[in-house]
Amino acid sequence: MHxxxxxxxxxxxxxSTWGVMVCDTCIARFTAIPHRAIxxxxxxxxxxGTYRGGLRALILSAKHRSAHAAIRRLGGALRDAVLPxxxxxxxxxxxxxxxxxxxxxxxxxxxxxAAELTVANCLLMDDVGTQRGRHRLERLRRDIHVGLxxxxxxSRVVIVDDVMTTGASIDAATDACVRAGLRVVGVLVLAxxxxxxxxxxxx
Length: 203
Ligand SMILES: [Zn+2]
Description:
The chain is α/β, with parallel strands linked by helices. The chain has one domain (about 35-195): 3-Layer(aba) Sandwich (Rossmann fold). Helix content is about 35%, strand content about 20%. The chain contains eight helices and nine strands. The strands form two sheets. Strands 1, 2, 3, 4, 5, 8 and 9 form a seven-stranded mixed β-sheet that branches. The longest helix is centred in the N-terminal third of the chain and has 12 residues, at about 55-65. The chain is globular. The protein starts with a helix and ends in an 11-residue tail after the last strand. Bound molecules: zinc ion. Zinc ion binds near residues 14, 15 and 25.
């Protein structure tokens, strides 16, 4: 590891306090009151807050640095918020975003485990290559599907992702679970895009 990386790695991702990956003050600031919303599929969503300011900086920094300890602390802060959903299985959203997540793994599993949920990595995404454009939503709906290692039919599941921006990935994941006979009872993310946070979502 280079000296410059050690320098940054020894400071809080939220406020640059020395010596910790994410300090108690930042955790308390971003996790005091969970944010709640409804997705365009009518699924209740819980997040730490809106994706802006310090929380956005914290998540981006943690992802950029693969600071899973910080992600785990944030996910753990959502543990109490998911308790009302009862006995659920967490289903992480698969990632098709090259370079967006360091080293190619999604953060959904990390967040779900930190929230003390049982995880089933049963959602798969077909390789969509580098296609871009207005048909992204349609492709997501087509390309996300539930694989063979899946929870039993009728299982109550929670979709988990790091950040909900357009909602397209989470809607596609929801649809895939419903098609496979799973009951989607919630969505869990660290943060939700601000424009999505104030009203029920539309696609
Ligand atoms: Zn801090």
